[in-house]
């Protein structure tokens, strides 16, 4: 019976204090995730998408220039 009493006290403390706090924090984080992006995060995402599009256009321009100037550049490397 001594081993059982050794386990019961921490289990009760866990169920009273840790488990409810754990559940509250878990569902609070789930709620924040389900709310989606904030306005600031959405603006940052749009800015990054614009920059990526501009970068893709620049890469296409550079590749076409390289194709015209040095047709074998893709085979080097």
Please give a structural write-up.
The chain is mostly helical. The protein has two domains: 1-35; 37-76. The chain is 83% helix and 0% strand. It has two helices and no strands. The protein has helices at residues 2-34, 39-69. The longest helix has 33 residues, at 2-34. The radius of gyration is 29 Å and the shape is elongated.
Please give a handful of descriptors for the protein shown:
77 residues, mainly alpha, 2 helices, 83% helix
**How many helical elements?**
2
Count of beta strands: 0
Please state roughly what percent of the residues sit in beta strands, choosing from under 5%, 5-15%, 15-25%, 25-35%, 35-45% or over 45%: under 5%
* Silhouette: elongated
Structural class: mainly alpha
Uncertain ranges = none
How many structural domains does the protein architecture include? Answer: 2
Question: Rounded to an integer, what's the Rg over CA atoms?
Answer: 29 Å
Q: Which range best describes the helical content: under 10%, 10-25%, 25-40%, 40-55%, 55-70% or over 70%?
A: over 70%
Order of helices and strands: HH
Largest sheet: none
N-end to C-end Cα span: 73 Å
Mean pLDDT: 87
Topology record:
Layout: H1 2-34, H2 39-69
Pfam family, one: PspB
Transmembrane segments: 6-25
Keywords: Membrane, Transmembrane, Transmembrane helix
């Amino acid at each position: 019976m001594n081993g059982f009493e050794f386990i019961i006290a921490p289990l009760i403390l866990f169920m009273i204090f840790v488990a409810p706090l754990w559940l509250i924090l878990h569902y609070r984080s789930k709620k924040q995730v389900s709310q989606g992006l904030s306005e600031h995060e959405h603006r940052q995402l749009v800015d990054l998408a614009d920059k990526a599009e501009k970068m893709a256009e620049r890469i296409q321009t550079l590749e076409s220039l390289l194709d015209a100037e040095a047709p074998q550049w893709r085979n080097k490397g």
